[in-house]
Amino acid sequence: MRPVFRLVVELSPREVVQRFEAALQREDHPFVGVTASRHVDLLVHEGERRLWSPAMNIEAVQETGGTVMYCRVGPHPHLWGAYVAMYATCAFVAFASCMLAVSQWTIGQSPWAFWLTALGTGLAALVYLSGFVGQRLARAEWLAMAMFAQQVVGLPPRVPR
Fold this sequence. Notes:
Layout: E1 4-9, H1 13-25, E2 31-36, E3 39-44, E4 54-63, E5 66-75, H2 77-106, H3 114-152
Helix pairs in contact: 2-3
C-alpha cells in the first residue's frame, strides 16, 4: 500500500543526509523534516497539512555503484497509528464475534454472531479501501516530495512510478 521508489546517486549516505539538512534549513523549503544517521523524514508543513497529507521516509544505503535512496511514501505517522488501531479493532470484533458464534453453534443456539464477524471483516475492507482514496488525494503532495528529494541530491526531476 505504501509506494516505494529508488533513486541512485553518486554521493555517500552521509552526503545525502547533509544535503537534506542544508535544504531543510533554507527559508524557502517546502517541507519540514528530521534527519538522523542515514535517514530523512519529510512532512508537509503543519499549516498546509491535511488529513491525507503524506510523509516520506528516505533511507540512504551504500551499495555498489553509488548510494541508493529508498523513498517510502505513506500517511502521516499519526494517521498511520490510527489505521493500525482501526485494523486492530476490526480484527478484534471479527475474532470475538466468530468465537461467540462458534460457542452459540456448539450449544445449539442460533449463531447470530456470525453477522458481526462479517461486519468486522467488511469494516476492515473499508479501512483498506480508504487507503487508496488517501493515496489519490495525496498524489500531488507526494509527487512534490519526490521532486524535492531529487532536486536536493542533484538529480533531474522525473515522476516516479
